[in-house]
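help with this.
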Amino acid sequence: MRLFTLGIDAEGRSCVNDERDIEPTEAIPGVNVANLFSTIECPPPAPPPGQGAFDDMGMTPGTVTWMLVDVAPFSEENRSIQATELHYNNTIELFCVLEGSVNTILGNGSLHLRPGDCVAMPGVDHATRAGSDGARILSISIALGPPN
């Protein structure tokens, strides 16, 4: 499995801050754990507004939503829906690709994600474009504090 942690570069564009292979280590006998992402404030502070459209998920700061998301294959016909265009949320999105593939478009490039890939995305610009077979994603959203 791979983990991508996203952030904002010096030009204010969304980018990959860190990429690493996930290697769990023994926490107690018979249980291996890998810490993927954690926060130290509740609610976590919001990053600056993105450059894309704002997608208001209507969540109260500090609340959590856990979703199973099926994404249709990307095509020019569905290009203009909000998910496929650059947008940002006032949430930390933590997701793992379960099936299919996804191209996550960022301000400074894109990521090609495959099953098992995980992403920690703290309110940065992104667009989601599933591959030719679509994608199934397990997603957790944590609502951030008021925008900066």
Q: What stands out?
A: The chain is about 0% helix and 50% strand. The chain has one domain: 2-143.
